[in-house]
Amino acid sequence: MSAPAAALALKVEGQALAGRRATPAHRAAFVAAVRAIPVGRLFTVNELRAQLDDAGVPPAARASLMAAAAREGLAERAVEVHDGVVYELKRPSSGRSARGADVTAWRRTDPRERT
Predict the structure, then answer these.
(1) Residues 107, 28, 26, 57: is their CA dihedral positive or negative?
(2) pLDDT digits (tens, 9 = 90+) for 44-86
């Protein structure tokens, strides 16, 4: 396995472990925060930070919870297409320890409109 593939595998494993530690109350709070965003609007998980902190949602579980929300049809990764090339949209993280890292931008979707 290549080094990038191994790193990705470790990331996915870590997110899965963190996601399993999220309680049903954490999941409900996360879904409520995402559902409060108007359909069609771009957002990042950073924009939900205060609400998730207030609900006690562990920061380590948020990527896993976002992936679950996407699987449920509540959001999709935001992309742009230029000259036939698809680019995933990123935004600078607003986290205190982000050190300039980018985070995924999501588009709020309506699960009833899934194809």
Answers:
(1) positive
(2) 999 999 999 999 999 889 988 999 999 999 999 999 999 999 9
Q: Are strands 75-77 and 106-108 parallel, antiparallel or unpaired?
A: antiparallel
Query: What is the number of domains present in the chain?
Result: 1
| Residue carrying the six token digits 């742009």 | 80
Specify the residue for token string 């963190």: 18
Chain centroid, CA 6 distance in Å: 21
- Extract the tokens encoding 28: 């409900």
Residue 59 is part of which domain span? 3-113
Q: HEC states along 41-95?
A: CEECHHHHHHHHHHCCCCHHHHHHHHHHHHHCCCEEECEEEECCEEEECEEECCC
This prediction's pTM? 0.79
Structure tokens given for 114: 């899934």
